[in-house]
Amino acid sequence: MVYIGAVPVANSRSATFKMSQQLADSTTKDSDGAFTEFIPSIKSWELSTEGLAVWGATDQFSDAIINGTLLNVQFKPKTATTGNVVYSGTVYAESYEITGDNGEVVTYSVNFKGSGKLSVAASA
Length: 124
What we know:
- The protein is built from one helix and eight strands; from the N terminus they run ββββαββββ.
- By secondary structure, the protein is mainly beta.
- It has one domain (2-122): Pnp Oxidase, Chain A, CATH 2.30.110.
- Strands 1, 2, 3, 4, 5, 6, 7 and 8 form an eight-stranded antiparallel beta sheet that branches.
């Protein structure tokens, strides 16, 4: 579940956390058997969530995009127990969308890009 500060994101139905790193090619003529070799390079992370839209409850996302606001977030279980992994850091809201199909509930989706180092810790 995604949290902004200590508050769970409103009416969230799903959430995704993604972490990746670029790999720089370090292959040389001395590489074993002409196989490519790599070394870790730039790392990145992102979060996304979607849920039921309630007018006013998700305005913070459009405000964050308009104002370029850096947000403190956490990705953790709703009921974290001792030892659960908690990912936290600062993000910018990259995109925000509200969808209202005929005869369906109104939903939202928001994507966040991590800015700076990601903290990974076990909950106490």
